[in-house]
Write a structure and sequence with these properties.
By secondary structure, the protein is mostly helical. Helix content is 59%, strand content 11%. Strands 1-2 form a two-stranded antiparallel ribbon. A two-stranded antiparallel sheet has the order 3-4. Strand 3 and strand 4 form a beta hairpin. Helix 1 runs antiparallel to helix 2.
Length: 148
């Protein structure tokens, strides 16, 4: 039974008792009954407002999820497009490991973030370097040629 229904039941009992509203006790019980009735109505309004707020919050949450999926989906696609091969080298001056991508290779060089030494890359060698480290993609090809 809801609070509003309980208060209505109590009102019916009070009327059935035939309380005299002119006595001190009757006046007190009448005021208490009215206060309980007002409180029950206020609680009911608050519950209805809470339900409305929950529904609105669910709608906003759903909309936010849609926006997030679109935004992060676009970022994921951009990251996939941006993700290329990553290369690594060691600075001969300070020994710092440096990571870079194809754009740095195309520029022909990079500065060491630790000591500032300029490292240059020569991409003109199509056969690979004599001491191939595998970065040029021809690792092991020279060894196979010697065995034949």
């Amino acid at each position: 039974m809801e609070i509003l229904e309980k208060v209505a039941y109590m009102k019916g009992l009070a009327e059935g008792l035939g309380l005299d509203g002119q006595t001190k006790e009757g006046k007190l019980l009448t005021v208490m009954r009215d206060i309980l009735d007002d409180m029950a109505l206020e609680l009911q309004d608050m519950r209805e407002g809470q339900i409305d707020l929950e529904e609105a919050l669910d709608a906003v949450s759903d909309d936010l999820s849609d926006v997030e999926s679109r935004v992060y989906e676009d970022e994921d696609e951009e990251e996939d497009e941006e993700d290329g091969e990553v290369y690594q080298t060691t600075c001969p001056n300070c020994g710092e490991e440096i990571f870079f991508d194809e754009t740095i290779l195309e520029d022909g060089g990079v500065r060491c973030p630790d000591c500032g030494e300029k490292l240059e890359f020569d991409l003109d060698e199509s056969e690979g370097c004599p001491n191939c480290c595998g970065a040029c993609g021809s690792a092991g090809e020279d060894e196979d040629d010697d065995e034949e």
